[in-house]
Amino acid sequence: LKSECILCKVCKAVVDQNSKHCLECNKCIQGFDHHCEWLNTCIGSRNIDRFFLFVLALNLECLFSLTLGFTLWGQSFNNLNLVLMVMKGIKFLLVLRLLGYHIYLRKF
Fold first, then answer.
1. Catalytic: 36?
2. pTM for the whole structure
3. Which residues are in the Palmitoyltransferase DHHC domain (predicted)?
4. Got the DSSP string for 27-79?
5. What pLDDT band is residue 51 in, cutting at 50, 70 and 90?
């Protein structure tokens, strides 16, 4: 089933009914979800799966970095390593929360 086309009130383009105009990118995005400030791009129905995989990969990178940091921490303990580990831990928790939120959105 093809959705009905409408005229965007902002850019006057003919778009699908489930499209929304992004003021950051100044274009209409099909199945608009949000504009990602970190990637400087819109997330919509065409790239939401790739965005989810990106967030998952980011979590794996954070986990790997944290694990490697703990492994190397025993070899050379100093204040700088302690600060780096705390920062890596905070980053991991924030990115894990983002992943959890997107898993929740996919489920419900």
1. yes
2. 0.83
3. 7-93
4. EEEET--EEETTTTEEE-TTTHHHHHHHHHHHHHHHHHHHHHHHHHHTTS--H
5. very high
